[in-house]
Amino acid sequence: PNRGLAFDNKGDMFVSVPGASNNCEDKSDPSNPHPKGLNPCPELKTRAGIWRFDAMKPGQHFPVDGEQIATGVRDMQALSWSDYSNGLYAAQQGRNGAAHALNPAIPGTSGDNYIAEEMHRVDKGTDLGWPYTYYDLDQGKRVIAPEYGGDGKTAADSHYSNPVVAFPGHASPLDIAFRSEEHTSELQSHHD
Question: Rounded to two decimals, what is the model's pTM?
Answer without folding.
Answer: 0.86
